[in-house]
Amino acid sequence: MKRLFSLFLLLSVIFTCQAQDSKRTVVNMQTNMGDILIELYNETPKHSSNFKKLVEEGVYDSVLFHRVICDFMIQGGDPKSKNAEKGAFLGEGDLGYSIDAEFNVPKIYHKKGCIAMAREGDAVNPERKSSSCQFYIVTGRVFSDPMLDRVQERIDKATDGKVKLTEEMRQTYRTIGGTPHLDGQYTVFGEVIEGMDVVDKIQRVKTDENGRPEEDVRIIKATVVK
């Protein structure tokens, strides 16, 4: 009887921990084009906790989506964009630190709607550490099998053959879409759960030669909702 009680207690603890682990932080980005609701992954604790902290500190309030490329991604989070003049080049602002990479391929990858951290290029950042604050939301495109085969060759070169597109990933890229060539090189740490129509509207705005929207697209306020 005592052993059964101990087993029951152990199982209760396990199930409780699993339930707690399943709870994910959700952030709402109120933009001047609509709201975007983002769920942060528990599997990327450094990135998710950093993003949550910056939201709570108001770092993202009033920043712009300063780089927009249709069928690829929308990028924001540059603190220098808050008071930037129209047409000014943006994308070099940060908070003075970087975040160690947290790659989780094939579980987590660059499907449409995912959110990932931007970073400096491999030449100056061989460890592929993430920016402290700049992020992007993937819009991407749909890929055919021959296209994915070519993407795999590109990924092989970038990761020394360590990152492979699984059949599940390929099916996602064939149907939902995304940016598979970035897998295993930039850290994905969450996904849009509501407001993808807003992201799609943003990706279609008119931009200048640097990808900055001609009419500012601004995050009015970001808040942790749960």
Task: Give a short synopsis of this structure.
With 226 residues, the chain is of the alpha+beta class.
Structural summary, described in words:
There is one protein chain. The protein has 226 residues and is an alpha+beta fold. 29% of the residues lie in helices and 21% in strands. The chain contains five helices and ten strands. It has helices at 2-22, 45-56, 145-159, 167-175, 196-203; strands spanning 26-31, 34-40, 65-69, 73-76, 98-99, 114-117, 130-131, 135-138, 188-194, 219-224. Strands 3-4-8-6-9-2-1-10 form an eight-stranded antiparallel β-sheet. A two-stranded antiparallel sheet has the order 5-7. The protein is globular and about 45 Å long. Residues 1-21 have low confidence and may be disordered.
Largest sheet at a glance? 8 strands, antiparallel
The helical percent reads 25-40%
Strand content: 15-25%
Please trace the helix and strand order, writing H or E for each element: HEEHEEEEEEHHEHE
Instruction: Report the end-to-end length measured between terminal Cα atoms.
Output: 40 Å
Structural class call reads: alpha+beta
How would you describe this structure in keywords?
single chain, 226 residues, alpha+beta, eight-stranded antiparallel β-sheet, two-stranded antiparallel ribbon, 5 helices, 29% helix, 21% strand, globular, disordered N terminus
